Amino acid sequence: xxxxxxxxxxxxxxxxxxxxxxxxxxxxxxxxxxxxxxxxxxxxxxxxxxxxxxxxxxxxxxxxxxxxxxxxxxxxxxxxxxxxxxxxxxxxxxxxxxxxxxxxxxxxxxxxxxxxxxxxxxxxxxxxxxxxxxxxxxxxxxxxxxxxxxxxxxxxxxxxxxxxxxxxxxxxxxxxxxxxxxxxxxxxxxxxxxxxxxxxxxxxxxxxx
Length: 209
Description:
48% of the residues lie in helices and 19% in strands. By secondary structure, the chain is of the alpha+beta class.
């Protein structure tokens, strides 16, 4: 049975908002006009929390790339960062209110599952300045998805207090690997490290349930 892959309308909304921001409203019209009428209607008419076929944002990204790639080859990574920094706080503000990248990346709520299904992405290795994030159960079918997450991880690190972020897409299902994987590295500002060192470790509290 073929896997039904879905994306939240917020992926479409963030892409369209970014196109307006980066290239103007005419770029949105040109991009949408390149798509079939049925797909164009879904993309233009849905809300951020609606689900659409994953193929819809992929088609949108491909059409936008035809317009932007020559003048802005890194637009997709910037679009991924824009989605987290601009749209993310409006939709999932509490999720982003973490004091360190490690706290964000290891929390129980999955960033991936707020935007796509099926599958999940989680940390398979992590420290105070490093994490390896692995995507399982979802085949992205196109490198645009992977580039979008590369940009998103940079934004996540910035928004949770990290600096000097480095993100490498080290394994890719589109290139024959069993799964996609990103290696993230960052530094924590000295004042943040000092603050953590000076903070007493709270006593373990266990309550009956």
